[in-house]
Amino acid sequence: MTSRLSIPGSAAAAGSPAPNAGVALGVGLAGTALTAAGFFVSDPRRVALSWLVAVGYWTMIVVAMLMLVLIHHIFDASWGVIIRRQYEHWLAALKWLFLLFLPLLAISAYLRPGLIWLWMNPGSLLPGTHETVGEDILYFKKAGYLNVGFFTLRLVLFFGIWIWLAYVVRRNSFRQDADGDLKWTRSNRCWAAAGLPLSGFAITFASIDWFKSLDYHWFSTIYGVYFFATGMRGALAIGVLLMLWLHRRGDYRGILNRNHLHSIGQLMLTFTVFWAYIAFSQYFLIWNANVPEETFYFNLREYGDWYWVGMSLLFLYFAFPFCYLLSYRHKVEPHWARFIAWWILVMLFVDICFNTLPAARDAAGHPHPFFSLLMGWHFTALAGVGGICVWAYLRSFSTTKLLPIRDPRIAECLSYQEASAE
Amino acid sequence: MSEAVEAAVAVPAILAEVKPAVLPRAVLVENNRSFAWISDKICGIIEGPTPRWWWICFGVASFIASFTVAGLIYLVGTGVGVWGHRSPINWGWPIVNFVFWIGIGHAGTLISAILCLLRQKWRTSINRAAEAMTIFAVVCAGIFPLFHVGRVWFAWYLFPLPNSNGIWQNFRSPLEWDVFAVSTYGTVSVLFWYVGMIPDLGLLRDRFTAAGKRVRAFLYGLFAMGWRGSNRHWSNYEMAYLILAGIATPLVLSVHTIVSFDFAVSLIPGWHTTIFPPYFVAGAIYSGFGMVLTLVLPLRAVFKLEDLITQHHIDNMCKIALATGSMVGYAYMMEFFIAWYGANPNEGFTFINRAFGPYAWAYWTMVTCNVIVPQFFWFKGVRRNIAFVWILSLLVNVGMWMERFVIICTSLTRDFLPSSWGYLSPTVVDIFTFFGTFGVFGTLFLLFIRFLPMMPMAEIKAVTPQADAHHGHH
Amino acid sequence: MSEKSYGLIAMFDTPADIMQAAEAVRDAGYKSWDVITPFPIHGMDRAMGVRRSLVPRISLAGGIIGFVTGMGLIWWSGAWNFKLVVGGKPLFSPLFAFPISYELTILFTAFATILGMFLLNRLPMHYHAVMKQAHFQRAMDDRFFVVIEARDPRYDRAATEALLARLGGREIEELED
């Protein structure tokens, strides 16, 4: 006996078509155009970094959705079937994210070399010093890795891996709707097993290339895992919002039940703790050894208002969601669940900023403050990239059935019971 | 939340189209065994006479355990110098052994706690034995930090107890954190294991009572706490079990994290790297699953438990070993890459030294056993070959011991100044004390399988299809 | 031995049977009764009308006490009682105090959970009337029982026995206290 959600209000007919994807496209194009304008009228370096934050934000989320789909297949899970199809639709955004990344490469490698990634231009001045990249022994030692050609090759490789995996899982899932053949499930499982390590490597080296190399003196072996963790939190938050949106539209009436929300809520709690674990490990080990070649990274992030940004990550991205998600009601009741999902998405943005923006420093070598008028470009960029991702999702949404109707685990999913039901 | 039925809600049309492809889930208990069969099978091991092979194994295990006892007596009587520690390698075999055994214990908690939270029902056949493995592994692990202090009668100094020395413990030291972590881990593991056993002890009490064996009924009954299967009790019990599983999960992650902090909070090249915590945890789970396979496969054969520990269980254990082994491989690659990327000459040298220096033999053994061996588990044919899986499980643990050995020895013997380089030679006492711990472990485990229910009967019954109140037949 | 009756006990054979029986007994308005099973049956709590367990609250209290104890001990010993600079680290930092506090949180939560569970279950209780049932061994093995206590206001020797028989209970016995 499933427990139905009762949500007053909308009596939208079940299975109504997706809202006009054009709106999302409009927002996306407007955001992109505004940001492009900002690049010319405002501080180009900081606007370009805003764009990097936005592309990084959405890419980490969408790649984490890919990981969730792969993990679902490899665990032969059942309850996840309810959200898997929606994640598969979101994966359509990956090719657009690749295109949206290219301006960053074009700018930093060719048009204004070294504007974003200093090492792309041997003449770039290291922040706060009179030394250039070309004179820096620490650059010289890693020039074999940090050069434009190899960077581009890796960029294509990472997106290639993700786009290929996305194509395969989407194709298998959509084709299975028609014929219910188990070969699609088996194919998914095989590709998931191969895809998880590949995708993991891609996330790791993408985060190293795009974010860690902004400050190429610094290094940390756990960096890739950190971005995996934070991306997963975003993907799960969007999953919750999607499920509740579909329920409100009527599509998921009689399909979504409290146990699904509880399970995804528990995953959100788990990844909250996991993220905190990774963040703590990274910070604490560097704090304890107190070696200047590593600690400078965090010292930068204690300057000015960045200290408060860091504290906000501790209290608002970990402590508050952790305590909030411990409660059963907060996970299963729609308005509570929606609140924490939005909260996490906002704080995820702060997290990405914390990791990347302090690379933009003034002449004295201090990072530009987080709070400034130039923050507006973050929002235009997020809207720009995000609008296009949502457009890609909605376009894909209307091409298939709402649920994977022939999936072998869908019956278990629809009648999903908690193991320890009251 | 109310369960009000909305008026006139149209059931989504899509539900009519749902027609899942048929892919049955693996059966957890094969041959449709009844509840009584499960009870008889497992209790039978305890109620029946002690088999001869048990006595032989017990004798051998006790003999090997005596090496540890002898080694420790000699150590306490003579001094810590009987071990191979010399400057510069002030941490040698004992800490390797400690991390090795603690790591093995982690799989037991993973199986009990983490798989419980993930609702993986297949864990029920192996979780009791795995939890026992954890406890005995912690006992073996604890021997080393306890005795490495030399003057063991002062070991209580490690705890913040009132004393006349007028000084506190150094709470900034990861070794002190280890004291708390391992004590907590041991305590919680024992409690979790015991609480899980209460219903089964109740069953054994009643069976012995019915069979007229009063002494044994009394002993088992004492620990059964008067358990009588009341559902009101089950309600609290299940909640307590779930909470214990919920806290044991972060506990197991934290214990090996804190163990990794022993190394990572320093600034020694090869040790100070941020990925150590999750890397150590993944490695611990990997070695633990190797040990679980080493123990469970022979037990399954000897006690004819194929219906309860099925090929599906073995497949899953192999796959987890594969996954965690791959995570360890990932960590190796990240360490190596960042050692190059970070351009710290000491760090870079450490990694070249690991692969081509005096400990290259250990390094390549480690890589073979930790990166290459688990890749065999990709193949279904391999997973079905029980003997081969058992051999691979032994190699898993060889590899994991080597890993800790490599981490410790390569970094300490070749650190910053060449004038202080050295080489570790373990002494006879080192070697005998370590190999003796396998005997200690074996002895305890043999006692466990002889006298205690080695599978949680209540949990296994609960995951059979007959246990479902909405099961087909009435 | 007093002749006071503890209540009635009836045996059932399958989980489905006992589930239906439990629902019926709950609907008949009994309050002092119980179901005895060899393993926890999924959904039985709802069938009996039993509320969610209180163990989590006790666990939470234990956890908070553990965390505060850890942080408090380390702060007091290092930054108040015997100030000593070690390794250039500050006298107190939540960072280095965290591992121990975390472990104590877990340890105290475990103690609280288990003690709480025993207290709420009123265990150990090595003697109980139901254990006198002739086939009680089957209760821990593969049979299921409903027991209705005599102290329940709706208890009536004949009517309750008839109810249990109607629900399919076998071997209905009266238990001595």
Description:
- The complex is a heterotrimer of chains A (422), B (474) and C (177).
- Chain A has 15 helices and no strands.
- Chain A has helices at residues 21-41, 44-75, 81-90, 94-111, 137-140, 148-179, 182-210, 223-248, 258-289, 292-300, 306-326, 328-332, 334-356, 375-397, 410-414.
- In chain A, helix 2 (44-75) crosses helix 6 and helix 2 (44-75) packs parallel to helix 14 (375-397).
- The longest helix of chain A is centred in the N-terminal third of the chain and has 32 residues, at 44-75.
- The N and C termini of chain A lie close together (12 Å).
- Chain B is mainly alpha-helical.
- In chain B, helix 9 (276-302) runs antiparallel to helix 10 (311-341).
- Chain B is globular.
- The model of chain B is unreliable at 1-8 (pLDDT under 50).
- Chain C has two domains: 5-49 and 125-176, Alpha-Beta Plaits (2-Layer Sandwich); 55-120, no CATH class.
- The mean pLDDT of chain C is 89.
- Chains in contact: A-B, A-C, B-C.
- The interface between B and C is large, with 69 and 72 residues.
Task: Spell out the key features of this protein.
heterotrimer; A: 422 residues; mainly alpha; 69% helix; globular; C: 177 residues; alpha+beta; Alpha-Beta Plaits; 2 domains; 4-stranded antiparallel beta sheet; 14% strand
Strand and helix layout:
The complex is a heterotrimer of chains A (422), B (474) and C (177).
Chain A: H1 21-41, H2 44-75, H3 81-90, H4 94-111, H5 137-140, H6 148-179, H7 182-210, H8 223-248, H9 258-289, H10 292-300, H11 306-326, H12 328-332, H13 334-356, H14 375-397, H15 410-414
Helix pairs in contact in A: 1-2, 1-14, 2-3, 2-4, 2-6, 2-7, 2-8, 2-13, 2-14, 4-6, 4-14, 6-7, 7-8, 8-9, 8-13, 9-11, 11-13
Chain B: H1 14-17, H2 35-47, H3 52-78, H4 93-117, H5 127-148, H6 174-210, H7 214-224, H8 231-264, H9 276-302, H10 311-341, H11 345-356, H12 360-372, H13 380-384, H14 386-413, H15 428-451, H16 457-463
Chain C: E1 5-12, H1 15-27, E2 33-36, H2 44-48, H3 55-81, H4 94-121, H5 136-141, E3 144-149, H6 157-166, E4 170-176
Antiparallel strand pairs in C: 1-3, 1-4, 2-3
Helix pairs in contact in C: 3-4
